[in-house]
């Protein structure tokens, strides 16, 4: 997975998490998503998509549950 070119260093990101056949769309901070991906690399427990949407589209999505847990190292 590469995020070069468009992944912001700050702000919010549209994140889609697939569990089995169900997709869940969330907004999360770029830092939380980077840490989530780091955790995912160690153990693939779901499928993750990063969606390149205008920020207005992200505002209508719910926040990633327990997002604050992914803000630390």
Radius of gyration: 12 Å
Largest sheet: 3 strands, antiparallel
Number of helices: 2
**What is the helical fraction, as a range of percent?**
10-25%
Instruction: Report mean pLDDT, rounded to a whole number.
Output: 83
**Mass-distribution shape:** globular
First and last CA, distance: 20 Å
* Lateral arrangement of strands in the main beta sheet: 2-1-3
Amount of beta strand: 25-35%
Question: Structural class per helix/strand content?
Answer: alpha+beta
Run of helices and strands: EEHEH
- Ranges where pLDDT stays below 50 over 5 or more residues in a row are none
Characteristics of this structure?
29% strand; alpha+beta; 25% helix; 73 residues; 3 strands
Quick description:
It is built from two helices and three strands. The chain has helices at 30-42, 55-59, and strands at residues 12-19, 22-29, 47-51.
Overview of this structure, please?
The protein has 73 residues and is an alpha+beta fold. It has one domain (12-70). Helices cover 25% and strands 29% of the residues. The protein is built from 2 helices and 3 strands. The chain has helices spanning 30-42, 55-59, and strands at 12-19, 22-29, 47-51. It has a 3-stranded antiparallel β-sheet. It is globular and about 30 Å long. The protein starts with 11 loop residues before the first strand and ends in a 14-residue tail after the last helix. The model has no long low-confidence stretch (mean pLDDT 83).
Secondary structure elements and pairings:
Blueprint: E1 12-19, E2 22-29, H1 30-42, E3 47-51, H2 55-59
Antiparallel strand pairs: 1-2, 1-3
């Amino acid at each position: 997975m590469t995020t070069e070119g468009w992944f912001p260093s700050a702000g919010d990101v549209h994140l889609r998490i697939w569990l089995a056949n169900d997709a869940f769309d969330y907004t999360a901070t770029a830092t939380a998503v980077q840490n989530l991906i780091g955790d995912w690399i160690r153990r693939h427990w779901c499928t993750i998509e990063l969606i390149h949407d205008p920020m207005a589209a992200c505002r209508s999505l719910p926040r990633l549950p327990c997002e604050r847990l992914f803000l630390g190292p």
